Amino acid sequence: MSAIAHFTRRWTFVAAHRLHVDALSAEENAATFGKCNNPFGHGHNYVVQVTVSGPIDPVTGMVTNLSDLDAFARRELLDRFDHQNLNTLECFRDTVTTTENLCRELWRIFIAYPHAKLERVRVEETGNNAFDYFGEGRAARFGE
Amino acid sequence: MSAIAHFTRRWTFVAAHRLHVDALSAEENAATFGKCNNPFGHGHNYVVQVTVSGPIDPVTGMVTNLSDLDAFARRELLDRFDHQNLNTLECFRDTVTTTENLCRELWRIFIAYPHAKLERVRVEETGNNAFDYFGEGRAARFGE
Amino acid sequence: MSAIAHFTRRWTFVAAHRLHVDALSAEENAATFGKCNNPFGHGHNYVVQVTVSGPIDPVTGMVTNLSDLDAFARRELLDRFDHQNLNTLECFRDTVTTTENLCRELWRIFIAYPHAKLERVRVEETGNNAFDYFGEGRAARFGE
Amino acid sequence: MSAIAHFTRRWTFVAAHRLHVDALSAEENAATFGKCNNPFGHGHNYVVQVTVSGPIDPVTGMVTNLSDLDAFARRELLDRFDHQNLNTLECFRDTVTTTENLCRELWRIFIAYPHAKLERVRVEETGNNAFDYFGEGRAARFGE
Amino acid sequence: MSAIAHFTRRWTFVAAHRLHVDALSAEENAATFGKCNNPFGHGHNYVVQVTVSGPIDPVTGMVTNLSDLDAFARRELLDRFDHQNLNTLECFRDTVTTTENLCRELWRIFIAYPHAKLERVRVEETGNNAFDYFGEGRAARFGE
Amino acid sequence: MSAIAHFTRRWTFVAAHRLHVDALSAEENAATFGKCNNPFGHGHNYVVQVTVSGPIDPVTGMVTNLSDLDAFARRELLDRFDHQNLNTLECFRDTVTTTENLCRELWRIFIAYPHAKLERVRVEETGNNAFDYFGEGRAARFGE
């Protein structure tokens, strides 16, 4: 039987955003998003945790090489999102920049990592708020 | 396919408690609960994490509105448990105030939150101790 | 229906290690393990989290007695791994001391804990790196 | 002899900002501020720690009443800075929104707290960056 | 010139307490202490940090031996305060159990540590509240 | 009057070490250093915090440019200490690798940073142990 391990790596980026939906009125935006609808934006230190799984390689003892995953995240995550205003990014042209949608976008990015299976994307917006995403059409199976 | 996200919110409350079972003798209580059986009680900064899930709303980009969940927690969790002695609460009249039972009680409370599906209740008693509860008759499915 | 809770306990130990595979050449070791292949070793403050589950005892309100689990961990984990060089331990004679393999070894240890069901072993190597193991032939079921 | 204690309170607010000096050229701004000069801004979860001191009241056992300090911070700090873009605030009309200048501005605010002596303002911009300010013309006396 | 280093050691204990002054009326107690005046008490995970200083021993490279300081804290701090109700302790017979007074009491205890000079006692009551004490008649010299 | 701010930057490195003094007997080494004297070494995730001070530049709003300080730390701290065994470094040829001595060595390194005044070097060996150093012949002035 193979031994499967899960590897969770943590990166941080800082960004501005504003919660606003063009299709809603000013009143609806204010009622829905409250202070997060402030027209000049606010921002966060976003903490991203990506979990990948795979068999432990019998020679190297690894699920995936940390340097491969870090290089991927440097190119696809940090270079594109760090020190940005999320509302100006192409990927948020048609969706509001909630952390739920950010998780979904990061799933689309990390699913392309070729060396292990993507299991989970987690984003902590603040120390009191975290969001998990497990892929399109998938929910967590915490219990049953 | 719908996109399901999981939202975990964190609140803190402070409380006293004492581990003691009336049906057990003083010796049995001391043997079972050790220092936690001290008759004058001790206490904790309890950290509660509640995870709810649901489809990401295509307009608002949210699983549930944070202000709704916070209002619910203010009324049902913080106003009832913060700065209390757990042993004096009605919900612990017949059960010992372990964190396992506290989780179970919090599950009964948050299952009534109407805007998303309750997935998990976690309580950290100290930085080295955490308890998860997934509902009556449900266990985690971490592996298989 | 029984009420199942999950209890996660956290311990820390400090240890040295070196990532090196005798069957690989010096060049292959350097290419695979980078700085972690430094012949004199480096080290970590390892954070171990063990999750066990079980029915909440209707009398004691516990899944397992913390003092039992701590005594087990003291004897089987801390006394054997704390302030050691992992590469000198018998259990790593034939495998490289990656955190994936450390998790697997800790699973073999904690599966013998007699008072609750082992669900998960997690080891944080640094604040940015964590590994989970769920048993031989088992993977997480985060989604589906 | 009186007994002096120091009380440090911690609040968090989230905000956007952009580092940019009008008097500098685009090239100079880019060279000085790097990614922080991005025209659309970025943001942070700012952590503020304010330290006040005073004699321990012989009756109440307090340096200052926490509810007084929290009310002051609610009105003067959180209501003015939380979920804002710092660059749009009046107090930053003539100065760049570095955390150094933010500390200085918070000093000007908290020095007006009437119930204890302000000793220090600390702002953590990220988990790896913190700034302390001790008042105009004052430096820390860590050693000598 | 001698080389002086400062060593800060951190311990945690859990305790219950109630803020109440017998000399004040029920109304005054409620107005002064708010929820902390709840007659059944509440509690905390108290985090204690003690800083001692001294010359770095030229042979051992230490300010003081950690095992000496830990043994002292075990006997004088943890065995006396952990899992207690602070209001029942002799040392709080005549003073209210605020964290300011707790710091002062811990100063009286650690000033007797014979192997290094006591510089500071810090107690974190919650993650958002910390108190420092520097000895009778001494205030911090953060600035000047 | 000039406005002086203090900037604290945090970096992490991982290393092995062993506490051992050649001039002491095996028994003395064991008695002095306990488990830390294990001949194969152990290790830590060392957290370094360096505090520098200086006037806030009236144009840039900074005490020193973070990119300058990070480049200095990359070259002088991380490239020399990360993933090393401290006992093999030239700077510890004649002194034992306690964290006190590590602080002192880091002071000698960061005092050469040309763009701000070094105030403090802090090293956290574990989450429960931290050491501060303020320069040769200097002690903290926490009180008086």
Characterise this structure:
- Six copies of one chain form a homohexamer.
- The radius of gyration of chain A is 17 Å and the shape is elongated.
- Chain A has one domain (4-133): Tetrahydropterin Synthase, Chain A.
- The first copy, chain A, contains three helices and five strands.
- The first copy, chain A, starts with a strand and ends in an 11-residue tail after the last strand.
- Chain A is α+β, with helices and mostly antiparallel strands and 144 residues long.
- Chain A has helices at residues 26-33, 66-81, 99-110; strands at residues 4-17, 42-55, 84-85, 117-126, 129-133.
- Chains B and E meet through strand 1, strand 2 and strand 3 of B and strand 1, strand 2 and strand 3 of E.
Task: List the topology elements.
Six copies of one chain form a homohexamer.
Chain A: E1 4-17, H1 26-33, E2 42-55, H2 66-81, E3 84-85, H3 99-110, E4 117-126, E5 129-133
Parallel strand pairs in A: 1-3
Antiparallel strand pairs in A: 1-2, 2-4, 4-5
What is the fold-level CATH name, i.e. the topology of chain A? Answer: Tetrahydropterin Synthase, Chain A
Structural class of chain A: alpha+beta
Strands of the widest sheet of chain A, in order across it, are: 3-1-2-4-5
Using only C-alpha atoms, the radius of gyration of chain A works out to 17 Å
The major sheet of chain A is characterized as: 5 strands, mixed
CATH architecture annotation of chain A: 2-Layer Sandwich
CATH class of chain A: Alpha Beta
Number of helices of chain A: 3
Using a beta-carbon cutoff below 8 angstroms, give the protein chain pair with the largest interface and the number of residues from each chain. A-B, 32 and 30 residues
Measured by DSSP, the beta-strand proportion of chain A falls in 25-35%
Write the CATH homologous superfamily of chain A.
6-pyruvoyl tetrahydropterin synthase/QueD
Topology of chain A as a string of helices (H) and strands (E): EHEHEHEE
Oligomer: homohexamer
Query: How many distinct folded domains of chain A?
Result: 1
Q: How would you describe the shape of chain A?
A: elongated
Low-confidence stretches of chain A: none
What is the helix content of chain A? 25-40%
Give a count of the beta strands of chain A, DSSP E runs of length 2 or more.
5
Query: What number is the mean pLDDT of chain A?
Result: 95
Distance between the termini of chain A: 25 Å
